[in-house]
Amino acid sequence: MKILVTGGAGFIGSHVVRRFVNTYPNYQIVNLDKLTYAGNLANLKDIEDKPNYSFVKGDIVDAAFIDNLFAEEQFDAVIHLAAESHVDRSITSPLDFVMTNVVGTVNLLNAARKHWAGKYAENRFYHVSTDEVYGTLGETGMFTEETAYDPHSPYSASKASSDHFVRAYQDTYGINTVISNCSNNYGSYHFPEKLIPLALNNIKNNKPVPVYGKGENIRDWLWVEDHARAIDVIFHNAKSGQTYNIGGHNEWKNIDLIRLLCKLMDQKLGREEGTSEKLITFVTDRAGHDLRYAIDSSKLQRELGWAPSLQFEEGLAKTVDWYLANEEWLDDVTSGNYQSYYEEQYDHR
Ligand code: NAD
Ligand code: DAU
């Protein structure tokens, strides 16, 4: 089986590529990535020389390029993760999100429609999506696969739109698709524009840790390797046209999570308890900030037997250790353009 993984040089994509390359030596894994600011081949150093792995640099927005790639490579399946993924960037540059997340997804679907004609049932198009398509929750309840879409940010609107296109291609042309909607991931190779790695990097460097609003927003955190395992299980076992929610049953208020991170960093860095908490700085809230996400993943647990493997405290400690042991990676991704991004996002808050 030859599988096209898009966005394989990003955070989650690199974990998916690593898992598939190592677990299935008889599959060919082709990683297509544009290598935007978020894509980094250093994330895949440990598997780059494996005979069942190859990398192609390219843009999913380029329809002719995607069409040629499908013609040349004759993929049996697609696992589509390439996306613009950061909510704050979507607030400043929404069109980039429409291009990659909507147009890019439709280009891939068009290529599948053309090159898989006559064998739609055999070939699978797996679309990796987010719980943010469901909007926001109040103090109670959870997102199920039946929750109506209600996106609020340009990012979540673009992901919701891409989900609708995937379902439309299933219903209209009969392409064999599956979609999963996952909650917030954490772990190694997470780009430090997102809350956990940004906070770890700032604590390490004794810089203010920006908490939006009052820090009362709630996210449901899942270890990224558990997400990659869920994608593996769904890819191999889901029936055509199915959707699965993936989540950690692990809700944390941002401020409580940041306090826990400060405590862990004090321990690991040998700082006196309470030192890093002094870096917490409340800043202007994110526009349209969703209050709470919580995923009901009971369908995935019941039908396909998946469950998260790690307790959060254990996963977070592993993550902190990884960032402290991989200073070079962190310094590398926070040099150059990262500095101007940071100033633009945080200097006026
Ligand atoms: P990321 O930003 O770390 O990685 C995205 C990757 O896509 C990068 O390698 C980037 O270079 C590549 N890319 C971007 N635009 C491209 C283009 N036009 N053509 C080809 N490649 C392009 O993102 P992530 O956090 O790893 O998320 C991966 C996927 O999972 C996304 O679809 C995202 O919506 C979804 N998701 C993420 C989370 C999360 O917590 N991070 C949770 C649920 C779902
Ligand atoms: O729920 C899944 C989604 O999780 C994915 O689809 C997205 O790709 C991913 O980026 C993530 O979105 P969030 O907006 O929830 O993640 P982020 O790490 O940006 O923010 C987490 C919470 O922390 C959110 O409530 C905003 C807040 N925050 C974030 C940053 C970057 C802060 O308080 N301060 C910050 O500096």
How many E strands? Answer: 12
Supply Rg.
20 Å
Mean pLDDT score: 97
- SSE pattern, N- to C-terminal: EHEEHEHHEHEEHEEHEEHEHHHH
Bound molecules: nicotinamide-adenine-dinucleotide, 2'deoxy-thymidine-5'-diphospho-alpha-D-glucose
Text of the CATH class of the domain at 2-186 and 222-248 and 293-310 and 338-346:
Alpha Beta
Classify the fold: give the CATH topology of the domain at 2-186 and 222-248 and 293-310 and 338-346.
Rossmann fold
Largest sheet: 7 strands, parallel
Quick tags:
349 residues, alpha/beta, Rossmann fold, 7-stranded parallel sheet, globular, binds nicotinamide-adenine-dinucleotide, binds 2'deoxy-thymidine-5'-diphospho-alpha-D-glucose
Give a short synopsis of this structure.
43% of the residues lie in helices and 17% in strands. It is built from 12 helices and 12 strands. Helix 2 runs parallel beside helix 4.
Can you describe what's shown?
The chain has 349 residues and is α/β, with parallel strands linked by helices. The protein has a domain at 2-186 and 222-248 and 293-310 and 338-346: Rossmann fold. The protein contains 12 helices and 12 strands. The chain has helices at 11-23, 63-73, 87-92, 94-115, 154-173, 195-204, 224-237, 254-269, 298-304, 312-325, 327-333, 337-346; strands at residues 2-6, 28-33, 53-57, 77-80, 124-130, 176-182, 184-186, 209-212, 218-223, 243-246, 251-253, 280-283. Strand 1, helix 1 (11-23) and strand 2 form a beta-alpha-beta unit. Helix 1 (11-23) crosses helix 7 and helix 2 packs parallel to helix 4 (94-115). It is globular and about 65 Å long. The protein starts with a strand and ends with a helix. 2'deoxy-thymidine-5'-diphospho-alpha-D-glucose binds next to helix 6 and strand 8.
